[in-house]
Amino acid sequence: MKKKNNSQQNTDIFQRATTAIKHGVGFLLNQQQEDGNFEGQLSSSTFPSCAYAWIQLVQGETLEESLVDWFINNQNDQGSWGLDAANQSNRESTLFVRLILELISEDNSNSQLKEIISRIPHYPLHLALVKLAYAAFNRYDWQRLSVSKSALPLMKIMKKIARIPMLRTILKPPRNKLPPVDMFNTSLFEELFIAEQHTLVPVFIMIELNTSRREDMIGALVEWLKSRVLSDGSWFRVNYITALSILALIELKKCEYDDPEISEYINKGIEWLHATQNPDGGCREALNLNIWDTALTIIALTEIDAEYIDAEYIDRYEIINKAAHWLVEHQNDDGGWAFSGLRDSTLPTDADDTALATLSIIRSKLESTDAKRSVENGIEWLRQNQGKDGSWSTYQPGQGDVGCVSITAHAIEALLAYGNNEEYIYRGVQWLRSKIKNEGYWDDLWLAKRTYGTACAINVLVKAGFRDAPEIAKGVQWLEQTQNADGGWGEDMFGRPSDSTVEQTAWCAYALLIVNGESDAAKKGLSFLLKNQRDNGSWQESCVGIYWEVIGGYSDPIYASVFPILALNQSIRNTDLL
Fold it and tell me: How many CB atoms lie within 10 A of CB 261?
């Protein structure tokens, strides 16, 4: 009787999943851009929106009405603002918005604005980057922003101690103080994560201009900043970093710094920043994540059978080939890919985009000479940039970076698809196995968080031939224990349980199905996905992507289509095998 019930349940899921995939693919294909790439509209965040407002204010401009409306519309029931689209109250975001709104209200008699301000909770200033904004408007002392340069020897010692894994999380730099400007000329700066360097240099310029005003230091910082501007006028193609850079240049211009190029950098940078403003009035942190979005979409489209694509759409292979060709054209000269496509290799290569772009081109079966060379170069970049411990980090090992579970899993999967990389794969697998937590989960850096890390680790361990590894059983048990009552999974960017999201439910269900096609937990997850698909084939996107702790996360509609399609397709594959 039980087998009959299971058979009926499998048939029901098969039929419903088939229909859901057809609708989901129809929506996904509509996200393809004219050039062939796929690109989701990323959600607005508080820090980028405040930074854009800051620029307008320091230039004596009236804030755009749509931006003011975004601040008003995103105040939550507690009178606060969150870091991101999840809108969970955050002290630092709230303090940043309070500053912006108070500055606006000084020349504005809008009663609604005053009522909004009256509802904001009072918090003490803590985060140094928020203090920086207050200092820019004479509401905080510039001299108190940084630790003394006499602390540099101690910082070097602490840096060495922090290399011990068990002490790394304990010995984090203080968030209430910025490092001294003099750190720029030390090895400590060179060892920072690349995004930290891009954040600190414009901050150092602003501090130096308002404190010591050492010409040689300012000159060195400005040259570093100018050498990192991208061809599109941004810095790192990131809103907050670009905004800080523009603010530093505006400060230089006010101080009559002798450099005729500064005005051009400011104007071009502001024009780029404007492109990060969303229809809701707020600003997103990254211009786009089109490399990842395109690679993920190709992988999903190559997973499913052609019969699950409605006939009204163009041939699947034409769509896939166009997208894969776009990836080939946007490969960096070093053989890798950046997170956002530029044709001039000025945006640094990262391991995750390189792994997924390489894998997707392999999966596309694009036969051109350029495509084959592109894959070979991508694989070689991954080989060259595997860490000594077997992991892959976000950028290059040894540059303030740490090994990442999902990136390592994706790199292994690309190497598996290419073939003949047993040594690299084995080392990566052993690193992954060593990183499971006692509770049975893996932590990730770039998507939320324990669910994603655990799902990625389980998937690639199975695909690499380690199905019997005890870590898989532990990971499966953890996923089953953390499933929500509605059949889904959910957690915030810090790993705290939250309402179920389709993205997290999809990647958890996929991992469970890879291990066991009859998983009851996976079937409950699939039911959640089927229940929550919209009439147009899409699913509601949620804030599952992570920038960093200051900025928060983001949602991307591509994720909310790709991951459910992959999970539902895996359930169909498993049913076909029964």
Answer: 11
Q: Take residue 440 and report the two structure tokens written for it.
A: 């049975």
H helices of 119-214, where?
128-136, 152-161, 165-168, 187-190, 194-209
- In whole angstroms, what is the distance from residue 143 CA to residue 437 CA? 42
Strand pairing of 497-501 and 545-548? Answer: unpaired
Provide the sign of the torsion angle of the four alpha carbons 113, 118, 121, 123, taken in this order: positive
Please say if the pLDDT value at position 549 is more than 80.
no
CB 269 within 8 A of CB 234: yes
Instruction: Look at residues 88, 91, 68 and name the one whose alpha carbon lies nearest to residue 77.
Output: 88
Task: Say how far residue 72 (Cα) sits from the centre of its chain.
Answer: 26
Give the separation between CA 180 and CA 153, rounded to whole angstroms: 12
Assigned token pair, 293: 């979005």
Sequence-separated (6 or more) residues with CB below 8 Å from residue 41: 278, 556, 557
State how far the Cα of 435 lies from the Cα of 437, in Å rounded to an integer.
Answer: 6
The pLDDT tens digits for 254-311 are 999 999 999 999 999 999 999 999 999 999 999 999 999 999 999 999 999 766 665 5
Maximum separation of any 2 CA atoms in the chain, in Å? 84
